[in-house]
Specification:
The complex is a heterodimer of chains A (693) and B (171). Chain A is an alpha/beta fold. Chain A is built from 22 helices and 27 strands. In chain A, helix 5 crosses helix 13. The longest helix of chain A is centred in the N-terminal third of the chain and has 19 residues, at 80-98. The radius of gyration of chain A is 25 Å and the shape is globular. Chain B is of the alpha+beta class and 171 residues long. Helix content of chain B is 26%, strand content 24%. Chain B has helices at 18-27, 66-70, 97-101, 123-127, 133-136, 148-163; strands spanning 4-8, 37-46, 49-57, 76-78, 85-87, 108-110, 115-117, 143-147. Chain B is globular. The chains are: A alpha/beta (693), B alpha+beta (171). At the A-B interface, strand 3, helix 1, helix 2, helix 7 and helix 21 of A face helix 1, strand 2 and strand 3 of B.
Chain lengths: 693, 171
């Protein structure tokens, strides 16, 4: 018998809506949800490979308890009862002895995040952190410093844009379906796209203007763009005079940052910079300078992300068609959001976070996400206190936090490491217990509150029964919670119970999602009146001069530190993602592995010739913290000062036979250095030597 | 030639390879055969800009298919009602004559069955009133499927738009 189930993809983090056709209890066909405009049945390569994840016999098939040394890969199968009991008993011992705060939970932000946050609050630990800060903490802080909104609370109305400026935002390989569709629509309507990146990507090859910028100097480019916009009065004077706080300060600050100055720093011709400023200005306010998705490149990251948001503000492209906007929630149309478990009353926690976020030590990153890359420091230095246990829920801190060797030393110090995952991540492989989660086809999930121009809710709904002995993450945490005596915070037995609990009072029921997979609170897109934008900064204005920064003792406009040309021959390691894989999670997925099974090191032809490196030959890449070997890809498509590799390789789990030992982990080479203001790691601030083998 | 035509709007293709994967997933193919494939040429710098071509290749479903004439067992066939060229797996003996015969590399080798497999425009889906797998879920909508005469119209329309401009519209 056939049935059609509307659900949400989970091959990456975008959560594109899908329609799943089930035949005789098997997933037969997956396509994008045809009822969702801008999706129209489309499915990206990762989504298309979903079935091969579901039916993969190399994913984790039952709870596992470690038998040999950590990381040795010796496991024994356990029943759920035994595994939960094992975790519960050990966690209880640790909490009784060291306090709830000695437990940390790492998570990739997902629909179940409210469950894990509730779990941590219930056990008295402030130490929940997400992958978000590691990926994009500084753009979050930048958004709060200028508008009072996080990056997650902002969107870009790309479909109506006439000018799109992207700084390494490789959206045609990131493949968020709505974003791709919007940009395609804009391009078809004549929009101009500018792409800036030290490396040529697919997005670069679709752009009208491409600049191979000197790596690490995007901020200099933006200061020169701002300089030109102000000098030639190319900005939206009405909007700026109404909303911007600190224009004069900015004007004084950028005075010396001329296009000619920037040309020397960035390698982009001064007249080209001026031309872009003038061209973009003609199309204001339907202009998007994209604030970026991953925003964790350099130690001055927050100032670069702020400079992008300033350019949007100067163009008046805030809350404008074709510009950036603030996401609207249900309250906007008198609706009510789905309940979250975190809305319950929890005991007060009076210890600081392990990463010191929200205290004087690290004041500005978003405490909702924490700063995960501080975890190895906290563990190794027992600062601010000892951390004894780590639960990794669909996140791989071992691979995602820079300096893997240091991460291993930190993990070694823990009394308990537990992973909840689908595939064997490197953290899972290094865990004491692995609790396997069901795939997105096999479980119903918490409600997705989809805020945007049109507030909606989407539902991930179970399409087929679990193929192996796996459970829903939210049920796993509930069961551990029960062992710890905090089961009352989880008022459900099944995911369906949880969803119904969430929907209480919203006016919607699960049945309402059956027809199309989502419900909308209202029929229309909402843009606020541009004379009444609700900025959430203390002044209610767009704060170029930022009280958030200055109250914490940081400057709004710190002097630009030039990037010197290196005399020692070292190159800047730049990293990114590919169209086939999601971070570190999908390299072993059958059809994705067929497309791309290892990463290579992009190196400029001239540089490679100097070093005697031949295309496709093995090379050694080394930094002060680690080294490894990888195949070279010798090309003119990358700036000579940079080398590039795709993130996500170097899997150590022997049971992931396709991805085991393939390629090189960038995290082995990267130093754990970070933007001390905004909060992101500086993934692109490690310099490496490359030599032929 | 089959009465159908699969049109790739090269301008909109971003080389994401979702078509290949969706096709393989739909046909449950092992590692190796790609009934449709996007081949990347470039990037090459043209006028200072990096340009990449992504060329979609599947099967042209020829009027006089080399593969059908070459097949010694009658496995490779042309469907009479619409001209779709397909292979009957039960009759294929894995001799690979069709692989040699096709000028475009359309017949693919399935190492698991030891037989040939090829694009059949997902004729089971077409018979249900659907479109081929690759077209249905194409990320950017750059693949379109239909009757040859309709597909031509897309190109002509586009050409007309690119020729038409303010400068050309007056005497």
């Amino acid at each position: 018998m056939n049935k059609e189930v509307y659900s949400i993809c989970h091959m990456c983090s975008f959560r594109c809506p899908i329609k799943v056709t089930v035949k005789d209890g098997h997933v037969d066909w997956v396509e994008g949800n045809p009822h969702v405009s801008a999706i129209d049945s489309a499915l990206c390569p990762r989504g298309s490979a979903g079935k091969s994840l579901l039916y993969d016999d190399q994913r984790i098939q039952s709870p596992l308890i470690r038998v040999g040394e950590r990381g040795s890969g010796n496991w024994r199968k356990a029943s759920w009862e035994e595994a939960i009991d094992y975790v519960g008993t050990r966690l209880k011992e640790i909490i009784d002895k060291n306090g709830g705060h000695s437990v940390a939970l790492a998570e990739r932000t997902q629909l179940a995040t409210h469950v894990s946050k509730a779990f941590m609050k219930a056990i008295g630990s402030p130490n929940h952190f997400t992958h978000d800060t590691i990926c994009k903490g500084s753009v979050n802080t930048a958004g709060r410093s200028i508008f009072g909104y996080t990056d997650g609370q902002m969107g870009a109305n790309l479909g109506n844009a006439k000018q799109i400026v992207l700084y390494g935002r490789n959206l045609f390989e990131s493949l968020g379906l709505k974003e791709v569709s919007a940009v395609m629509k804009a391009l078809e309507n004549g929009a101009k796209m500018t792409y800036i990146d030290p490396r040529v990507t697919v997005t670069a090859s679709k752009a009208h203007r491409y600049w191979m910028i000197r790596p690490g100097t995007d901020l200099a480019l933006n200061y020169a763009l701002i300089h030109t916009v102000l000098k030639e009065r190319l900005y939206d004077a009405k909007f700026v005079s109404k909303w911007v706080h600190g224009l004069n300060e900015l004007q004084d600050f950028v005075e010396s940052y001329t296009p000619e100055w920037a040309e020397k720093e960035t390698g982009i011709a001064a007249e080209e910079i001026i031309k872009l400023a003038r061209e973009v200005s003609k199309d204001k306010p339907s202009v998007t300078f994209h604030a970026g998705y991953r925003a964790s490149n350099n130690t001055n990251e927050i100032y670069f992300r702020r400079s992008i948001l300033m350019l949007n503000s100067l163009m008046g492209s805030v809350e404008a068609k074709g510009g950036i906007f603030f996401k609207k929630g249900p309250a906007e149309v008198g609706g009510k959001a789905a309940r979250k478990l975190t809305s319950q009353d929890f005991p007060k926690i009076d210890v600081p976070r392990f990463d010191k976020v929200g205290t004087e030590g690290f004041p500005l990153p978003d405490p909702n996400h924490g700063a995960g890359h501080m975890l190895p420091f906290a563990i190794l230095n027992e600062d601010p206190y000892p951390i004894k246990a780590l639960i990794a829920f669909r996140m791989d801190p071992m691979m995602s936090i820079p300096d893997i060797n240091q991460n291993k030393r930190a993990m070694d110090k823990l009394d308990l490491v537990v992973s909840i995952d689908i595939n064997y991540s490197n953290t899972a492989w290094y865990s004491d217990v692995i609790l396997p989660e069901s795939t997105y086809f096999e479980r119903t999930d918490s409600i997705q509150q989809a805020n945007g121009l049109k507030p909606q809710m989407f539902l991930r709904k179970k399409a087929v029964e679990p193929r192996y002995d796996t459970l829903d993450g939210a049920v796993i945490l509930k069961r551990i919670g029960e062992k710890l005596g905090v089961g009352d915070y989880f008022p459900y037995e099944t995911m369906e119970d949880l969803v119904e609990w969430q929907l209480e009072g919203t006016g919607f029921t699960m049945k309402d999602f059956e027809k199309k997979g989502f419900v909308a609170y209202g029929p229309d897109q909402i843009f606020w009146d541009r004379d009444n934008i609700k900025f959430k900064t203390p002044s209610g204005k767009i704060e170029f001069k930022s009280s958030l920064l200055e109250d914490a003792g940081f400057e709004s406009f710190p002097k630009y530190e030039p990037i010197p040309v290196r005399e020692d021959g070292k190159m800047r390691l730049v990293v990114g993602r590919s169209r086939f894989h999601t971070n570190v999670a999908t390299q072993n997925v059958f059809y994705l592995n067929e497309q791309e099974s290892e990463n290579v090191l992009w190196i400029n032809t001239e540089k490679a010739n100097e070093l005697g490196i031949k295309n496709n030959a093995e090379v050694e890449v080394a930094s002060s913290v680690g080294k490894g070997t990888i195949k070279a890809f010798v090309t003119d498509l990358i700036h000579p000062e940079a080398v590039f590799m795709v993130h996500g390789y170097g899997h150590e789990a022997a049971r992931s036979k396709r991805s085991f030992n393939k390629g090189l982990a960038d995290g082995l080479i990267q130093k754990n250095i970070y933007d001390k203001v905004g909060g992101s790691p500086a993934f692109h601030d490690t310099f490496v030597t490359v030599k032929p083998l | 030639m089959s009465k159908y035509y699969l049109f790739q709007d090269i301008r909109k293709c971003i080389g994401c390879h979702a078509c290949e994967i969706q096709c393989k997933s739909n046909k449950n193919l092992p590692i190796g055969p790609k009934l449709c494939q996007v081949l990347q040429v470039g990037p090459k710098f043209i006028g200072g800009l990096p340009k990449t071509s992504f060329i979609f290749m599947s099967c042209f479903h020829c009027e006089n298919p080399w593969c059908v004439s070459a097949c010694p067992t009658g496995a490779m066939q042309k469907r009479s009602k619409d001209g779709i060229v397909f292979i009957d797996n039960d009759l294929c003996v894995g001799c690979k004559t069709c692989v040699s015969a096709c000028p475009w590399g359309a017949p693919q080798w399935n190492p698991e069955t030891g037989k040939v497999t090829k694009c059949d425009y997902c004729m089971d889906r077409i018979d249900e009133g659907l479109e081929p797998a690759c077209v249905t879920t194409c990320t950017t909508g750059c693949l379109k499927f239909g009757k040859v005469e309709d597909m031509n119209q897309i190109r002509r329309g586009r050409h007309a738009e690119s020729v038409a401009s303010v400068e050309n519209s007056s005497f």
